[in-house]
């Protein structure tokens, strides 16, 4: 049975960092729709360039584009032992399509984890967050004096969607469009909530045991719990 995880939480909650850490430790791919979009943008893909215009305004990319990207990725052989999704689903429509994909895969339940952080802390984190132009990594905010990526030496810059006005719009979009997805999943035996305002190592430990607990007692997506 695969270990299939959806990492949810508002912008700045640290879900991307935690998703990468968990996926690396468990030997499954981390699938970030944001990373896939950025790779396509570098390749000047017309659909991705249209999506970039929306992302730069703090708006969501349309469901059809995101579903197509995720479906293609989940059909690759390296996802057989499982995966960690970061950035998908962001609408109820996407969540329903993911359920259909999971039913077709038939290799284990879908564990959904909501990483929660108070809004004031989110705004603070996003105002100081930077990304490496070369490898896309986001360094620990405590290393605010660094100008180069510790991993590859690339230049660290603020993301175009982390400006103050865009951040506020992204949080509004999350509240309006993504919160209903949490309601969609909340009643499932495989849904868990973790306090993302804790120290990163503590968040990682909580995520690990919550995911294992949910996977052990969970039911396949679409089935009644």
* Sheet having the most strands: 5 strands, parallel
| Quaternary structure annotation | single chain
Which fold name fills CATH's third level, the topology of the domain at 3-117 and 177-217?
Answer: Rossmann fold
Low-pLDDT residue intervals, each spanning 5 or more residues: none
Please provide the ordered H/E string of secondary-structure elements.
Answer: EHEHHHEHEHEEHEH
Number of distinct helices: 8
CATH homolog superfamily of the domain at 3-117 and 177-217 = P-loop containing nucleotide triphosphate hydrolases
The proportion of residues forming helix, as a percent range, comes to 40-55%
Strand content: 5-15%
* CATH class category label of the domain at 3-117 and 177-217: Alpha Beta
User: Could you give the distance between the termini?
Assistant: 18 Å
Strand order of the largest sheet: 2-3-1-4-7
CA-atom Rg in angstroms: 17 Å
Query: In one word, what is the shape?
Result: globular
CATH architecture of the domain at 3-117 and 177-217: 3-Layer(aba) Sandwich
Average pLDDT works out at 83
Which class do the helix and strand fractions yield?
alpha/beta
Number of strands: 7
């Amino acid at each position: 049975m695969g270990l299939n995880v959806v990492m949810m939480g508002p912008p700045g909650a640290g879900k991307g960092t935690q998703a990468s850490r968990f996926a690396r430790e468990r030997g499954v791919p981390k699938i970030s729709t944001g990373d896939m979009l950025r790779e396509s943008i570098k390749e000047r893909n017309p659909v991705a360039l249209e999506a970039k215009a929306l992302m730069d305004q703090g708006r969501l990319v349309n469901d059809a584009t995101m579903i197509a990207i995720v479906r293609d990725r989940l059909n690759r052989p390296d996802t057989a032992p499982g995966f960690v999704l970061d950035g998908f689903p962001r609408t109820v429509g996407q969540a329903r399509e993911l359920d259909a994909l999971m039913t077709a895969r038939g290799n284990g339940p879908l564990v959904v984890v909501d990483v929660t952080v108070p809004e004031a802390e989110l705004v603070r984190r996003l105002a100081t967050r930077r990304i490496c132009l070369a490898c896309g990594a986001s360094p620990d905010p405590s290393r605010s004096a660094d100008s180069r990526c510790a991993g590859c030496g690339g230049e660290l810059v603020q993301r175009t969607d982390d400006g103050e006005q865009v951040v506020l719009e992204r949080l509004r979009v999350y509240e309006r469009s993504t919160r209903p997805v949490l309601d969609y999943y909340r009643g499932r035996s495989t849904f868990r909530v973790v306090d993302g305002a804790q120290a990163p190592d503590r968040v990682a430990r909580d995520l690990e045991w919550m995911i294992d607990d949910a996977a052990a007692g969970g039911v396949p997506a679409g089935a009644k719990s």
